[in-house]
Amino acid sequence: MAEALAPATSDPLQTALAATGLDLGLVTDPDQLARFTTDATRRVAATPSLVIRPADTAGVSAALRLCQEAGRRVVLQGGLTGLSGGARVQPGEVVLSLERMTAIGPVDDLAAQIEVGAGATLQQVQEAAAASGLIFGVDLGARGSATIGGMIATNAGGIRVLRYGMMRAQVAGIEAVLADGTVITAMKGLEKDNAGPDLRQLFIGSEGTLGVVTRALLRLHPAPTVETNALCAVDSVEAAQALLRHLRARLGPLLSAYEGIWPEVYEGACALTCNPPLPTGAGLYVLTEIQGMREILQEDAFEAALIEAYEAGLCRDVVVSQSARDHDRLWALREACVDFTFSLGNLLPHDLSLPARALPAFLAEARTRLAEVDPQAGVYIYGHLGDGNLHYIVKTEARTEVSAALNGLAARLGGSITAEHGVGQDKAPYLSMVRSEQERLVMTRLKAAMDPAELLNAGRVLG
Ligand SMILES: Cc1cc2nc3c(=O)[nH]c(=O)nc-3n(C[C@H](O)[C@H](O)[C@H](O)COP(=O)(O)OP(=O)(O)OC[C@H]3O[C@@H](n4cnc5c(N)ncnc54)[C@H](O)[C@@H]3O)c2cc1C
Predict the structure, then answer these.
(1) pLDDT tens per residue, range 190-223
(2) Contact 426/84 with Cβ under 8 angstroms?
(3) pLDDT in tens, 8-67
(4) At 295, is the pLDDT very low, low, confident or very high (cuts 50, 70, 90)?
(5) pLDDT for position 8
(6) How remote is the CA of residue 405 from the centroid of ligand 1, in Å?
(7) CATH number of the domain to which 303 belongs
(8) Are 134 and 211 in the same domain?
(9) Banded pLDDT at 297 (limits 50, 70, 90)
(10) Is 138 found in the same domain as 117?
(11) Host domain of residue 68
(12) Is the Cβ atom of 179 under 6 angstroms away from ligand 1?
């Protein structure tokens, strides 16, 4: 992209930034500023007057120091695939984008780690790992744009949490810059280091409110030589949970994914991608997967476990992928769930987390509550069922009432208002439903200690 040369300006911050002589990639051209306004929520946002796109950590540090001196609020942006409005611009905010910090280090195949710049995309990391016969444990549909910095900031989950955990489990080292420009480098990558509190954790899942992630050391895993998935039709969520229990018992750590797709979404996603792999009309569809090593994996273990499940009445129909093409086709169907719901436009998303035992009650009660709040509401559900994570999406005009009802119900049943997308701006009003006064007080003190002027991602998470 052609760089916008910063024109003569009346903005003292812009003048000070330009005077550093650093490569800060300033953008001020109104035509170019438009792409930095909002995230994947596509909700209306303010247009920033200035975007800073540093080339390196020194640039991030200098820029933040100058923003602090000028008392200017800063919003951090990665790939803008976030679904909670965390990166969406508020009036008066300067954007700090990590999009140019895309360096990807060599893979250390002894430590099974890779060093990456915060602006590297998930897909770039996946490709670098694959070139060394390794894989990165987190995968999600927005892989082409989501950045490692944004994924760390939101503690992203995705489709293989069951097997590898969330982003937190993949981070061996972090470099971050505080609001005043202080650089914290915790990049040793030691598996064991108990020398005081682990400062890396402060930046994982705090959604850019405590500092800017600039670099990370990520853990990698051996690439599986066997990868097979299957689509199962089941009667109910209880049946899906019984099937999960059965597959876990039979397959243990081989089980790498367990995704749920409810009928309305299944039909919509099939219409976008392929002929339905299984007939429509089931209560619920489950896409499950194993990953393992051919040498130690009993060849038909997956099919045998699924046949047992079928014979025991846990699933009413099943199709197992027979080739890499089949495998990809089933995953394409899962990814089309997102495309389908996005295509319906202006839907109200929820990213709920429920204790496994509360899931059936939540689904039943949610329907009852919705019928009370908005009898016309349309409901579209899919998600990471094996993790108790539902993407519960509602077509409604009563947006505030519906969100309050669903988030409140999840909270009452011991769940969370956000399993993986984060609080951002959009869920900040509901934080008190799931975090106690004492917890919020500690969060406020942490913020005050690390960003006393509240310039970094202000209004996100704590509101
Ligand atoms: C099609 C699709 C599928 C998705 N699937 C999943 C999924 O399965 N699981 C999941 O967890 N999420 C999913 N997401 C949501 C999204 O991809 C993740 O939240 C991702 O982590 C956001 O990364 P990003 O680089 O786009 O961050 P952005 O959207 O740019 O920012 C997200 C938040 O992180 C902050 N931030 C960004 N970069 C930094 C940084 N370097 N340092 C500190 N803070 C920073 C921002 O200020 C903001 O608060 C999906 C999104 C889409 C569009």
Answers:
(1) 999 999 999 999 999 999 999 999 999 999 999 9
(2) yes
(3) 578 999 999 999 999 999 999 999 999 999 999 888 889 999 999 999 999 999 999 999
(4) confident
(5) 59
(6) 25
(7) 3.30.70.2190
(8) yes
(9) confident
(10) yes
(11) 12-97
(12) no
Spacing, Cα 156 to ligand 1 middle (Å) = 7
The reply to whether 198 and 236 lie within a common domain is no
What's the chain's Rg over C-alpha atoms?
23
Distance (angstroms) between ligand 1 centre and the Cα of 439 equals 24
Q: Which of 81, 99, 184, 335 to mutate to test the pocket of ligand 1 (most atoms within 8 A of CB)?
A: 81
460 has a pLDDT exceeding 50: yes
My answer on whether 230 and 313 are in the same domain is yes
Number of domains in the chain: 4
Does residue 76 lie within any of the structural domains?
yes
Task: Say yes or no: CB of residue 77 within 6 Å of ligand 1.
Answer: yes
Residue 38 lies in a domain: yes
Indicate whether 125 pLDDT > 80.
Answer: yes
Distance 150 CA to ligand 1 centre (A): 5
Ligand 1 atom closest to 119 (CA): 41
Q: What is the mean pLDDT of residues 286-302?
A: 89
Return mean pLDDT, the chain.
Answer: 95
Name the residue at shortest CA distance from atom 16 of ligand 1. 82
Q: Is 54 inside a domain boundary?
A: yes
Instruction: Please say whether the beta carbons of 455 and 74 come within 8 A.
Output: yes
Q: Is residue 312 part of a domain?
A: yes
- Whether 387 lines ligand 1, by a CB cut-off of 6 Å, is no
Give the C-alpha distances (Å, rounded to integers) separating 134 from 7, 142, 336, 364.
Answer: 46, 20, 27, 42
Q: Is the CB of 151 under 6 A from ligand 1?
A: yes
Ligand 1 neighbourhood includes 156 CB (under 6 angstroms):
yes
CA distances from 278 to 117, 143, 267, 286, 305 (A): 42, 27, 10, 11, 19
| 314-325 core/surface letters (b: 16 or more CB in 10 A; e: else) | bbbebbbbeeee
Whether 213 and 149 have beta carbons less than 8 Å apart is answered as yes
Residue 148 has pLDDT above 50, yes or no: yes
Distance 145 CA to ligand 1 centre (A): 9
Measured CA to CA, the distance from residue 235 to residue 46 in angstroms comes to 46
* Same-domain pairing of 242 and 317: yes
Percent of the chain with pLDDT over 90: 94
Residue with tokens 């194993």: 290
**Ligand 1 within 6 A of CB of 147:** yes
More confident position, 235 or 273: 235
Tell me the CA–centroid distance for residue 146 and ligand 1, in Å.
6
Order of strands across the sheet that contains 94-97: 51-52, 94-97, 74-77
Q: Which whole number is the average pLDDT over 150-170?
A: 97
Indicate the pairing of strand 94-97 with strand 51-52. parallel
Q: Could you give the CA distance from residue 73 to residue 82 in angstroms, rounded to a whole number?
A: 20
